[in-house]
Each structure stands twice: as C-alpha cells, then as structure tokens.
Fold these 2 entries.
Entry 1:
Amino acid sequence: MKRFWKDFAEGDLWVKGSCLVMGLGCLKRRQIVKGLCYLAAEILFFLFFFGFGWKYLSHFLTLGENAQLRVWNEDMQIYQRVPGDNSMLILLFSVLTIAVTVLFVCLWVMNLKSAARLCQLEKAQKHIPSFREDGRSLLNERFHVTLLAAPLTTLLLFTVLPIIFMILIAFTNFDANHQPPGNLFTWTGLQNVTDIFLGNATKTRTFTGILGWTIVWAIFATFTNYIFGMILAIIINHKLVKAKKMWRTWFMIPIAIPQFVSLLLVSRALEPTGAVNVALMELGWIKTPLPFLTDVTLSRVVVILVNMWIGIPYTMMTFSGVLMNVPEELYESASIDGAGPVRRFISITLPYMIFVTAPATITTFVGNINNFNVIYLLTAGGPASLDYYQAGKTDLLVTWLYKLTVDQHDYALASTIGIFIFMIVSICSLTVYNRTGAVKKEDMFQ
Amino acid sequence: MKHSVNKRKLRASIGLHTLLTVLSILWMLPVFWLLISSFRKEPGAYTPYLWPKAFTLDNYVRLFTDTRLFNFPRWFMNTLFVAVCSCLITTILTLMVAYVYSRLRFKSRRAIMNISLILGMFPGFMSMIAIYHFMKAIGLDQTLLALILVYSGGAALNYYIAKGFFDTIPKSLDEAATLDGASRHTIFWKIILPNSKPIVVNTAINAFIAPWVDFIFVSVIMKDNYNNYTVAKGLYTMVDKANIYQYYTVFCAGSVVVAIPIVLLFIRLQKYYVAGVTGGATKG
C-alpha cells in the first residue's frame, strides 16, 4: 500500500487523471483493451447508479415516505390505487446498489494501481505486458482469479446479498401489518431484539422455551445417534458377523429414501388412526390410540426416537469407516503387552474413534440444531401451544423461523431469530474449529 | 477346551446375527410399509387394518397417466432437467473453489475461506424470501432457471470435502509438472482432476440428489405454478388435507418411483461418504 502511494505521487498526469477517467493510465501505456474495459466499467457503473440505483438508495434512510393511496376517480366513479413507495424493493435494491458501488470502488483502486505501476515500468524502461500476456497470467500466476470469479459471483448474488438484506430486515418492522406494496415498513432499531428479551412477554417465553428445547433436542439427537451408531458399527464389523456389506445396505436404504417421503409416512403412521396405533390395538396392547403427536412429552420422545431411525445409519457408516482405519500396529503392540480384547477395545478402539470423529460430531450437533426436516415433517412443531407466539412445543428455532416467514409473514422477527441461530452455531463451531487444529495443519500431507 | 471356545463363538455369532436381523427388520419396516401402500387398492391414508384387502398396479398407472390435477411425468422431467443442470454447475464450481483453496496461495485466501465458513453458518431459510424477491425483480420467479441458480448458487461454500481430498494429492506432482512447463490451468485439468475421480463422483451425486429431495425452496420460488413443480414439491402437495384421501396411495407409488434411483445412487455413494466424513480429521 505504501509503495502504491509513492508510485501514485510520482505518477504523471495520466496516472492522476485515472482518478476521474478510469483506464486513462492504461490507454496511455498502450494497454488499449484493458483501458477500454476500465472505461466501459466506469460508464456502465454511472449509468446503473444514476439510472437505477439512486432512485432506491435515496430512500434508504426512511424506506419510503409515500404509502399507497386510494384515490376517488370522478370520471370513472371508482377508487383507484395510486402506487406509493415499495419499502421492500427500496431495501433490496439499495443493498444491491451498495454492493455494486463497493465492487466499483475496488475496481477503481485496481485501475489506479495498474496506472501507477505502468508509469513506473515505463520510467524504468521495462517491458509492459500486452493484453495477451495478461490473459495468459490468468491461467497461471493469477489462476485463482479465473477460477474464483464465477463461484464468488454466484455466492455474492445468492448468499451474501440475501443475508445482508435479511440482517437489515431484523432492524425493521416488516411484519404481517407492514406488507409492501400496500403498506410501508421502516427502521425500528433494536425493537425486535428487545421484544424477544424484555418487552413482549409471549415472545420472550416462546424464545426461551424453544431455545431450551432446541438445545435439549440437539444434545439428545446427537448423542443417541453417536452411541447407538457406534454400537451398531461395532456389531456389524465384529469378526464373527458374515455378509457385512449386506447388513450395512439394509440400514442405508431407509435413509436413502427422501426424507419428505419417509418422515411424512412415519408421521401419518403415528396419527391416532395411523398404522402404529392400529397395530398396537390389534395386538391388544392398548385400548385407545396413543397421542404420539399431540402430547407434549410423548411427541418430544417420538421425534428423538424417529431421529434415531434416520440418524443411526449415518453414524454407523462413519464409525465403520473409522474402525477399518484403526492403525494395525496399535493392536499388535498392545497384544504383545498382553492386553485382552476388552482392554484393547477400551484403550485403543474407543479413544481412536472418539478422537477421529470429534469434528464430525460437532457438525452433527450443529446440523441437529438446524434439523428442520425431522421436526417439520413429523410434528410440524406441534402440539401447538397458546403460551407460545406462533409456535408449538416441539418447534426448534429454525422451524419457528420458517413458520414465521412462510405462514405469518413476520419477516422482521424471523430475521432476528435467524441472527440468533447464526450466533449459537458460530460460537459452537468456531470453538471447536480452533481447537481441532485441522486448519493449521492443512499442508501436512502435501 | 477348544471345543468350548468354538461353542461360545457359535453362540455369540447366532446372538449377533439375530440382533442384526431384528434391527434391520425394524429399520426396513417403514420402507416395506411404503411399498405395500403403493400397491394397495383401497384409497385413503388411514385404514383400520394393517394388511391391504387387495393389491393393484393402478396407483402407478394413475401416477403416469392421470395428469389433470397432478402432472407427475412433467414434474419428473422438470426435476431431471434441474438436477442435471445444477449438478454440472455445482460440480464444476465446487471443484474449482476447492482446488484454489487447496493449491493456490494468494493474499486474500485465508480471509475468503473464513468468510465462506461464516456464511455457511447462517440458516439457509433466512435468505429464501430475499432470494424470491430478487428473482421476482429480475423476472425469474416461478421458473426452472431460478431453481437451478438457487441450487448451484451456494456451491462456493461446500468445498471442504473436495479440498480435503485435494490436500492429500502430493504436491510433488504439481511441482514436477511445473518444471515441465505446465501452467496451473493445465495442472488443474490434466493432473488434479484425473486423480480425483472419487471426489468428482461424490460431489456430482450429492448435487444431483439435492433437487429431488428439496421441497422448501421449490415452494417458495414456484408458489402455485403447478407445472413447474419438482417431484418433491409435487408429491408433497398430493398429501395435503384436500387431496390426501384420493391421492395417498398414488403418493406412495410416486415416492417409490423417485426413491429407487436415489437409493441406488446413495448406495454407490456410501464408500465415498465414509471417506468424506473422516477425511477432514485423519488427513488434517
């Protein structure tokens, strides 16, 4: 950066002129195509900014002032709608415009850098790379630019911008009563956050209740799968068991079936008139149907049990892979030291498995916090509760978020919850990520 | 002495196999239930008995011929189209990103990787409304193109497994090629990719399966445009309250049709799956 300032200060008029007219420095030093590209980018940007972006960006601070009106039309004898500002589009395109502007500023700095560098090269009478040479460097020294261009663009458009947009939504009152284009919504600061924690008793109760259950659920779902998956893997990989591959396949088939099919089917089977109750009554074990999905405790147990059905095969596969990879030397030296099978299992197999699967377990834990399918398809969050704000007793934060978004159109609250989920998930993952040290040793095996 | 050891082994073996049989029956029960429901003659989701009174192939016939309300053949082609396109795009993008992070060293590398990691922690649903309105603003809402973009747009975030794999390919290969005058472009296509068949297959199968099982983004993007539904969303619509009695057995038939190819792909995937999960830990 320091060198750039020096080069820039020493640059001639063409370099300084590149501040206003991009590509000037390149054009002067015979980099015609590159210079024209810069110039075209500048023109396109200003066309975009003043022709489109500013229209929205200028309302960014208020998110629109003129609501849609109904005006009496004397000639036609009807009420006509006069379109007002659309807060949502203002916010959406403002974010887009800001992003484009940021990109443009980066391009502008690049333009200045290359102008200053070219000026230095010319002064030193060194070779100035031609357009073709620049192009070739994109396939070699700067190959990362070529490869990353497309993926990062899609990432920006379909992940980054939407996330920024939704984070901003968390600071507005965009809910069912403030739906564009009929109504405006506006900035409300930290209102949604204070609602959740202090202001609104129902929302506070819902949030703490659901957060508690989410954590209980994630712990149970992760560890039941972990323990039973490990046991199952040990059984299947036991040296007395024949046809190991066949057994593994039997357990794989149920999880290979799309979850919206398998879970929906199980959910129907658990209803009062569903197959499970019918079977239990035919066996004569119960007289009246069990409320699997409508009783709070029972439904919570049921989702954990069904999750075991879905999850254990995955952990079984993981542990099978690990078991096959336990270094043989460890066993040999243990045998020489006189360790029996039980001792070998406790001192070698178990610690090795736990060590190797630690990162995967954290991923599973985080996955369970956000385990939308199991909850939504089985109970849809139910049984619904009047204590809760638009949620039921088996709802996780993520299913609550979904319901608030899709059913209630309460986007502002949903976004706030989304940010909290993000915080929980990132704290969990980053703690572990830093501890496992997988990041630091990435070059080890190359 | 030896005799009793053998006897004990035999008993243990029988015990283990019995246990496994019981467990796999338990696991396969819902699958079996799906199969017999798809051949059941009587309509409806609930029957007061377990074993169907009569069997028929009619549900499968209706699935493919009765297209008045639910056009399953069309949904199937939609899904196939979306799956093939997004599979191609996602695979290429993911492998490109993984290669860059694994092999190339440049200034902002660490920063971009960390940002990707953080972005992946936001719940995906959070952004779906924004994506819908964005698509609407550029006139792509309710189109298959929008779905392809949504499914392949996040490809740059799922590079971990592929990167872990590339990390294990010895760097000496690259260096030898560089000495022979190969550019990085050539190295990527001629050396890294041919040596990474398992991870290419793994990435491709995963990307191919995604459109067949997702029903959330389809609902948000397609709204009520029945013709552009994918099988997942379509089948899901068959079992909502208004249609479930009439269409439940057809739904089961459709599910079987969708599930068979996925199950086959999944079984093919399982050996890569194991490598993927543990790869990050053992390969550092």
Entry 2:
Amino acid sequence: MKRVVITGAGTINALGHSVADTFTAMRDGVCGIGPLDIRDVDRLQIRIGGQVKGFEAEGRYNRQQMSLYDRFTQFTLAAAREAIEQSGLTFTGELAALSGVVLGTAGGGVSTWDDNYRAVYEEGKNRVHPFVVPKLMNNAAASHVSMEWNLKGPSFTVSTACASSNHAMAQAFAMVRSGMAPAMVTGGSESMLCFGGVKAWEGLRVMSKDACRPFSANRNGMVQGEGAGIFVFEEYEHARARGAEILCEVAGYAMSSDASDIVMPSKNGAARAMAGALKDARIDAADVGYINAHGTGTAANDKTECAAVADVFGPHADRLMISSTKSMHGHLIGGTGAVELLACIMALRDGVVAPTIGYQEPDPECALDVVPNEARDAAVNVAISNAFAFGGMNAVIALRKI
Amino acid sequence: MTVKDQVIAIIAEQALLEPEDVTPDSTLENLGIDSLGLVESIFAIEEAFDITVPFNANNPTESEFDISTVASIIAGIERLRAEQSGA
C-alpha cells in the first residue's frame, strides 16, 4: 500500500476565493453568512445563506464556456486551478493517462435546472438552449476539470447528499493508496443557492432564518452555503521525488450506511464511520487532536454526532477539539466535506483550529470542546473530518501531519 | 367541513387511522406520527387553509404554533387564519 499526501488545495466559498483567504477568515472567525441576493428572494421564507460574493463568471470565462459551465462547474474550475497550480504537476504521458478526477456534488447544475424550468413552465417558452443537458449533469464539473488539465485516468462524480465530497475523496485516496493512480484531483462543489434550491430545503423545515449555531443550545437549524474545494492527492514517493510541498498526509477513511432513516441521523452509523477511519489509518483514538464536525446546527445532527464522538473516543472525547466551520461558510451540501477538509489542513499545518462561531449557550447534549467563537492555537498531529448525509450515508477521512 | 373536521382528516390520513380514532385531545405522538409525518402534516394544513404555519422542526415545542394536541393545532389554525386572512 502506498502513502498518500495532499500537494495542492484550492477553494472558493463564502469566506474567500482562495485557500489563503479562507484560512485567514477561519482564523478570524469571520461569518460568511448573510442576506441572500437571488431572484425572487421575497418569495422565500429562508433568506440567508453563505453565498459566494464578487465572483463574476463574465470576464473569467468566455461566451462558449459560459454556455457550458453551470455555477457549480465555474466554482470547481476556479478551485481546481488553484490546487493544481500549487501542486506544480503537469499532466502528460503516463502521469496523465493514470491520473483522474473524482468529485462530489449533491445537486450538480441546480441553477441550470431552475432557469430552464422557469423558461418553459413560467415563461411558456418551448425551446431551451442546446447545452442544457451537458451543463446540468452531475459529472459536468469533473469532466471539465479532466479536459482542462488533461487528466485521462479514472474519473467520475459521487453523489451522496451532504457526504458527497467525503465519499469522492475517499475514492480518490483509495485509488492512490492502491497504486492505481499516481495522483488524483478530488473534492467537490455545490451551487444550490437559487430560488428552487432554497425553496426545496425550506420545505423540510430544518433551516434557520437567522444563523447557523452548531452545538449551541439555542441552535435552530442549518444554513446553506455554496462553493468548491479541490485537492491534489498524490502518492508520497512521487511527491517527494519531485520535491513537492506536502500539505499533510491522508491516512485513512471509512464509509458506513445507517440503513435506518432517510433523514434522521444515527449515532451508531456515525460512530462506525469514525472508528472505521481510525482503524483504516492505524491511528490510536487518543492521538486525534481535532475533529471537523459535520455540525450542521440542526437539533438532531449535533447531539447525535456528539454522542457518537463520546462513544468512539471515550474519555479522550473531553480532551480533543471539535468544531463546525459551517457556522462560517454555511453547509455546502455535496461540496461541504471538501471545504471543511481545509480546516483540518490548517490545524495540522499551521496549528490553528478553526472555531465554531455563533456559539451562545452550552447544550448538555453537546458537552465537548467545540472551540467556541475564537480560533485556537494548538499542535495537532491527527485530524478527522466527518460527513453524515441524508439517506444515512457517512464518510469520515483521517489526516495526519507530515 | 369545519376546521376541526378538516384537521382531523389530515391527521388521520397521516396516522393511517380512521377520523373517528382521532380526538381533540389526541397527541401526534400517541397517534404514531413521527418527525417526518409532522412536517408533512404541517404542509398539508398550510395547503388546505392557505396559511403559513411558523414551524421549525429543530424546536417543534418552542415554535409559536402549538402542536401538543389536535385541539391546540385547531386553535392555532383558527388564529393564523384570522391573522393571515386577505394576506
């Protein structure tokens, strides 16, 4: 089995248009959640989100590209450029033939669906743009990354709701670890902040109208975000041989399925995924310094997740730090695990643990060190990143300092 | 149909019971309606009465809309209809 390291990272999200800007915002506990600026927002009950601001597709992409790139693809391509340029890899020859792209998204081109349904149903048009299908398909972003960077190996898109990115990164990791691919581009993206996307979530009655306050006793729901996180996973010796800068090691992962309820989380499923990731990575639970929580800010998730952490870590649960950065960037749904992996990298590399902002009242059912409101300096050698999706599908990734 | 009869019909359908089995002092819990069933019931009530029910599944007991019994739901709907009429 090969060792796997991260040699490139890129992002765009409500906290920043790059990894550096996102780290600065996480360090400063910035809240990227605010009033939604979208069409027909006055017909929504939920009017806040972690929206990406100042990202203009015009000027960044040409007319032909714009007709093919949904916003989730635009985010992906921007983040992929940052990650691949940082890695310094050029994909040619055998490296190109073996390296691929595995990305996560829950909804794919949601705003393309939304715009075109509006055109045919509301505006009564009988014709849509010829590229609607290639623009909205869930694998569009992965395909455009492969085309732009000449990645000709195994490439596909994974869709497991809120765990999509973690499942995608788990697949990429497994491919590099097994020796199938020397490098993989992976992560995920989401762009659901359009009228139809928010309206659908609104129906479930789990969204907050004012803020995402994970673990706080007065939490009242989740807040959607948007954006992308993209990484270059590379075989360790391959990275070392070319003198690449290594951000951290991906040590292991596990996936589990609750097989119980379509929306309610399960302590057992979450615990099995965390314990499985530690076992796969051969990490002792006592070595874990930081958990990037799924921490959605819903009543159900946060207490279930904390109970699962207590089960897996025993007395060590009271010594480790666990925070939810969704309080800052919102819940990026299928892209969330990718952006949250950044908080793990920051903890391992820079020794800065991102806070859970908006924390106001302790909840006895979430009695862990949730790093409330302010980032903390701490030496962290091992971090894990949790994602527990609707449908009961869980994926946890374990990372190690290198 | 009165508001009471309509609410009982909606809740009975959700609980897979006959309307006669749903009484004003029934609670959703003892009718076997879970959290998803509750969200669906609220939706059905909003559609039936053309009202918006202030309800957050994260803290159902703290919402302004009292869902503790069938009677409290009926009272809440009557209040909302009065408040939201013409809206």
